Amino acid sequence: MAKLSIEDLKKIKESVQAAVTLREGGYRARVNIHMGTCGLAAGARGIMTAVLDEIQKRDTKDVVVVTSGCAGLCNREPMITVERMGEPPVKYVDLTPDKMRQIFSEHVLGGKIVEKYALAIGSETTF
Description:
Layout: H1 6-23, E1 29-34, H2 37-42, H3 44-57, E2 63-68, E3 79-84, E4 90-92, H4 97-109, E5 118-121
Parallel strand pairs: 1-2
Antiparallel strand pairs: 1-3, 3-4, 4-5
């Protein structure tokens, strides 16, 4: 295994701090963008760009954005999971940047699930 650099350690620290802060209630929501090979091929980078643009445009400070690998539904990528404190997680599928912007506005910020893009509501959570 390669030695970790100071930058690698800083990234690990930031990731752990974000997870702890989310569990302790410091953030309104967590957006997990599934970026396995299938997700990347289907356009997950565009989804990530849309989320980050919305966060910057709205000067949002209380939303955590994380990435994960394949969720096992390759034919439904790009896909995200939205977790809001005290609510079941929602998995959204077949996304485009425009759909992502709508989900960000209505669900992440507003708390209203966008049912027409949701595949499933509820599963394991991180808090």
